[in-house]
Write a structure and sequence with these properties.
alpha+beta; Jelly Rolls; seven-stranded mixed β-sheet; two-stranded antiparallel ribbon; 3 helices; globular
């Protein structure tokens, strides 16, 4: 049942992308050998919003997430303090290329999750979604946060 639900979601999201979804601040698109996906996101692009993240959120729709955007590429580390739901974290460089995927971070765990250096954005989605959809290192993200001249998949 879960596999059918994920497949149906993947097909719907892929069809939406095929219809020419535009680049918007509240939308992240991903593509790779596995296909394509789109998530509606809240932006965390200030120190305050990045600091709070998804703390205290009790549930999140499967097609939603939060996109952390930094002013410049840097080492990105996270923890799950006060986070109530399991999350996948997708770390991208300044081209929008996925450099690391951390699967199913444990709610409340204060262990440091290190996404590496040279990270410009981090997409948090529901735990298990990245693996179910096949999102891996080398996948590409599309969002206005990536400069068109250097983006692997420009807007």
């Amino acid at each position: 049942m879960i596999q059918r639900t994920v497949l149906a979601l993947w097909l719907i999201l892929g069809a939406s992308l095929a219809q020419g979804a535009e680049c918007r601040d509240d939308t992240v698109q991903l593509r790779g050998d596995w296909g394509q996906a789109r998530f509606t996101v809240d932006l965390a692009d200030t120190p305050d919003t990045r600091s709070r993240g998804l703390m205290f959120v009790e549930s999140m729709p499967k097609s939603a997430g939060m996109l952390f955007v930094y002013d410049a590429p840097q080492r990105a580390t996270f923890w799950m303090r006060n986070t109530l739901i399991s999350l996948d974290m997708i770390f991208t460089d300044e081209t929008g290329t996925v450099q690391h995927v951390h699967h199913s971070a444990i709610p409340g765990d204060e262990t440091t999750i290190d996404g590496g250096s040279g990270i410009l954005t981090v997409l948090e989605i529901n735990g298990g979604m990245a693996r179910a959809m096949g999102i891996t290192e080398g996948s590409q993200m599309r969002h206005p946060a990536f400069a068109p001249a250097s983006a692997a998949w420009p807007c």
